[in-house]
Specification:
Blueprint (H helix, E strand, L loop, with lengths): L9 H34 L5 H24 L17 H5 L23
Bound molecules: zinc ion (ZN).
Length: 117
């Protein structure tokens, strides 16, 4: 995993935002995959091949989610996933202002009224 010298400076924040947007697109894809798998399982006879496939597809969604998150959604300064479920919660996870581990800026030009990205 590439490390960036400027510990979460402006460039780091910009790069993190790029990653975050790519990551969010993946999340949408996984949601679709899970929904399709669940639908296949729901419309197939229990125990049948379609049901098994549907369950497997739906179950692989969260696994892919964790995999891609741990791979791409990282702080550029400390290389850790900026997750802090205690305290600020999921909103901070989806669009963190700073890394909860090292405090590096993950969002640039934080200004009032600019929170809805
Ligand atoms: Zn960090």
């Amino acid at each position: 995993m590439a490390r960036y010298g400027a510990a979460g400076g402006a460039d780091g924040a910009e790069e993190f935002q790029r990653r975050r947007k790519a990551w969010l697109r993946h999340m949408v894809l996984f949601a679709v995959v899970i929904a399709l798998g669940a639908r296949l399982a729901a419309t197939s006879a229990a125990g049948g091949l379609g049901f098994t496939l549907g369950v497997l597809i739906a179950a692989s969604g969260p696994a892919l989610f964790v995999f891609v998150t741990s791979l791409t959604y990282r702080c550029l300064a400390c290389d850790r996933v900026p997750v802090a479920l205690s305290g600020a919660g999921w909103a901070a996870l989806l669009n963190p202002t700073a890394c909860p581990h090292c405090g590096a800026a993950l969002r640039r030009g934080k200004q009032p009224g600019e929170e809805t990205d």
